[in-house]
Amino acid sequence: MSAERRRFLGALPFLGALLAVGTSSVGALLAVPLARFAMYPLRRKPGEVAWSDIGPTTDLTPLAAPVKMLVEIEQRDGWRKMISTKPVYVTRTAEGRLRVLSAVCPHLGCSVAWNDSRRQFSCPCHVGVFAEDGALVSGPPPRGMDELDSTVEDGRLKVRYQYFRQLVTTREIIA
User: Which residue pairs from 78-85 have beta carbons closer than 8 angstroms and sit at least 24 positions apart in sequence?
Assistant: First the structure.
């Protein structure tokens, strides 16, 4: 065996170790971003709900009765982003503050409708009746209509759309 060959064979363990360290380093550099991407749904805080714009408050100034409006909400399911449209009712309190009510009946989730001639909300599924302010009047629903968090920013009404547990007497946010 020649001296050159012996020197080459002697360097093989060092070259193998160098190759292993280099490969591991590249693997680690790739693994960190991939792990962060894969773990994103776990790191996301529950209850993170974006504010949705309903529209200018000037459109709601002569509000004599509740107005049904559609809200576009952004929902995230892991990595998927979905935009959906949900109905809400905008009313005014006795003090004149704008208030947003969910159009979902707290009984079994049917859509609540405003009856202008009777000046009340009604749920057609099980004959639930709600007052103009969303309070329960009669029927099987366990509580009044759910109020959604709302705010006015720069003359625009914004709402945080949320889902509530049905068939319970207290307002429990579930998503």
Answer: 78/40, 78/41, 79/40, 79/41
